[in-house]
Amino acid sequence: MTELAEGSVDASSPNGKLRNHIPGEPSMWFFVIGDLLIFGVYFIAYMYYRQQDHDVFLQSQARLNLDIGAINTVVLLTSSLFVALGTSAARAGKTADAVRLFGIALAFGAAFPLFKVFEYAPEIISGSTPGTNLFFMYYFVMTGMHLCHVLLGLVILGFVIRNLKGSAPPKISFVETGATYWHMVDILWLVLFALLYLVR
Description:
The chain is mostly helical. 78% of the residues lie in helices and 0% in strands. It is elongated.
């Protein structure tokens, strides 16, 4: 009964499907919703000031490296795909597969901060800093906050893998909690990529 409450597979249900439940711990959902609200305020403020000084924002936006931004988008989407697959494998009791899939997700996720360094360095060297104008202030603040979330997410994925590799049966709710956080990180980046790199 405890395992079912934590989101494990109900063997008595048709096709071993999960009963309807909210995946992960409620505390993580509280954190996720709060985080989304905070970023939402930044997004609204960014769009407001963009309307006030559209030309400066467009000129500054053109200085961003769209290629690296797109690569990082693919990297995070791929990582989230493997997190979803790993979560499904864990729920199905395929622990070895789950460890492998989460390991791949962690590897793709770790590429994000590396590419971000390659993006930040030329911008800063060329004089594009948070003090340059409002666009770059919002760019560095929002992407910097997101980068911190990615780094925390990598740590969480590491704990998920440790949980799966432990001698005791893995706690599925913990796996789902880690997956929930990582998917939030992915969603935030999709909005950031659209606002900062694509919207004209």
